[in-house]
Every structure is written in C-alpha cells, then in structure tokens.
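User: tokens in, sequence out, please.
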C-alpha cells in the first residue's frame, strides 16, 4: 500500500471485541458458568416437579424428581462458583474445575432418561470444559 511521504504509519491490531475468550482458562470458565446456569435451571425445574421431565419405568438410578432437582441445583451452584473462580484466575480453580466438570458429566449422564436432549447438550459442554482444563499447563 502506498503512503504519503512523511506520513507516519500506525499498525492497528485486530479489534478486540470482547467476544472471544483470550485464554483457554477463560474459555473453560465461561463454559462452567454456562453449565452451572443450565444445571441450576434444571434443578429448579425438578424441585418444582414440572411435567417437563419424563418418568422412566425401570431405571437403576431412578430417584424422586425432587431429589434429582436438588442434586442438579447443588452441582449447578458449585459449577457457577468454580467458573467464576476460573475467570478470576484463582489458583485452585483448575483442579476444582476438573473435578466438578466430571461430577456434572456423570450426573447428566445418569439423568438422560428424564430429559435426553438437555442432558446431552450439558454433557457436551462439560466435555469441552474437561478437555480444555486437562490441556492447560500448570
């Protein structure tokens, strides 16, 4: 590109629109916050005994829907707290994130017969968080 003689060139970096997380830890934190919010909503729905969830007839992990609601609510709040800790770069965030994303993955897997599409979506999110946190260097 031709310039005007004597003109000073300024190189501009790509604009930071704030949409993309700049580090894998931030990506994992955002994923955990989102997974936490979805689990909280799932828990509230279960506690309220909404008719949204199906009721499997013969299932080994069949609990009362209110019990599942409380499980998802507690896991969701923990995911939200650890997700915020990851975004704030708290030292214990990575190890707690790995543990909680694994717990969330297992609870969602056990809840599949009640609401499969929702569970699969949250499981994919948990897997992405697990993969990201496992690949982070100490």
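Assistant: Sequence out:
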């Amino acid at each position: 590109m031709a310039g005007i003689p004597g003109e000073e060139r300024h190189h501009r970096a790509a604009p930071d629109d704030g949409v993309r997380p700049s580090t894998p830890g931030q990506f994992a934190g955002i994923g955990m916050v989102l997974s936490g919010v979805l689990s909280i909503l799932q828990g509230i729905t279960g506690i309220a005994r909404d008719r949204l969830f199906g009721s499997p007839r013969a299932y080994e992990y069949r609990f009362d829907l209110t019990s599942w609601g409380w499980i998802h609510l507690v896991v969701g709040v923990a995911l939200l707290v650890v997700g915020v800790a990851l975004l704030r770069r708290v030292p214990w965030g990575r190890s707690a994130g790995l543990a909680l994303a694994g717990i969330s993955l297992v609870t969602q897997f056990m809840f599949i017969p009640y609401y499969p599409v929702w569970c699969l979506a949250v499981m994919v999110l948990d897997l992405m968080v697990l993969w990201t946190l496992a690949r982070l260097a100490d």
